[in-house]
Amino acid sequence: MRLKSGDRVRVLSGKDRGSEGQILKAFPGEGRVLVEGVHMVQRHTKARDATTPGGIIEKSLPIDASNVAIVCSSCGPTRIAMDVDEFGKRFRVCRKCRTAL
């Protein structure tokens, strides 16, 4: 999985298709990403003690990494390729315009 937290992505499928957001957390072992404002659900929670109130809490759940595309600053949603610099260090580039991400 080539997505990292902090990347700007666009949702390609599902109920939130077309919306954009930033990756808050990536789960590479599971192949899922947590995107801000996407896949919002409501959880009904019980009050644990006097300081923690109960009620309905909205939270975001992870979605599959294959359902998002990284957004390049110059050409929009794109795929990612890997390139190597002169020192042998790998870095991510846009497949369309070959600019570093």
From TrEMBL:
**GO terms for cellular component:** ribonucleoprotein complex; ribosome
Q: Name one GO biological process term.
A: translation
Which InterPro entries has this protein been placed in? KOW, Rib_uL2_dom2, Ribosomal_uL24, Ribosomal_uL24_C, Ribosomal_uL24_CS, Ribosomal_uL24_KOW, Translation_prot_SH3-like_sf
Which residue range or ranges hold the KOW domain?
A: 2-29
Query: Keywords for this entry?
Result: Ribonucleoprotein, Ribosomal protein, RNA-binding, rRNA-binding
CDD domains attached to this UniProt entry? FYVE_like_SF, KOW_RPL26
Q: Please tell me whether the keyword Lyase is annotated for this protein.
A: no
Q: Which domain of life is it from?
A: Bacteria
Give the quaternary structure: Part of the 50S ribosomal subunit.
Q: Which HAMAP family match?
A: Ribosomal_uL24_B
Function summary: One of the proteins that surrounds the polypeptide exit tunnel on the outside of the subunit.
Concerning its family, UniProt says: Belongs to the universal ribosomal protein uL24 family.
Protein name in the entry: Large ribosomal subunit protein uL24
Q: Which organism is it from?
A: Ferrimicrobium acidiphilum DSM 19497
Q: Which gene encodes it?
A: rplX
